[in-house]
Give the backbone structure.
Amino acid sequence: MSTIFDKIISREIPAEIVYEDDLSLAFKDINPQAPVHLLIIPKQHIATINDITEDNREIVGHLYWVAAKIAAQYDFAKDGYRVVMNCNEDGGQSVYHIHLHLLAGITMGWPPFANNRPKQV
């Protein structure tokens, strides 16, 4: 099954890419929920968290490593950020290709965004 993310990886659909390596791609979300809202995806298609296998489990660690690398590169690592991966419809997943949401640039409380204080990014 081809998703919008597969089409971004193959460059059939444009995206504002901020990071790429052999295993992953990070780009700006077109519907940002924070001043910084990036999506970090594996180039290998894995539909949901439930589809991660022993053979491809390292990719999830790689995605988190990319998130930390981007946070340091764009200088919001020290202030903090949120990384979220949704699973299936009730979990809020809308594209069936695993991906991390990297959110930063505001103070995040619980429930999410309860204590929003916009920051400069």
Remarks:
- The chain has one domain: 4-104.
- The first strand starts at residue 17 and ends at 20.
- The domain at 4-104 is CATH 3.30.428.10 (HIT family, subunit A).
- The longest helix spans residues 58-73.
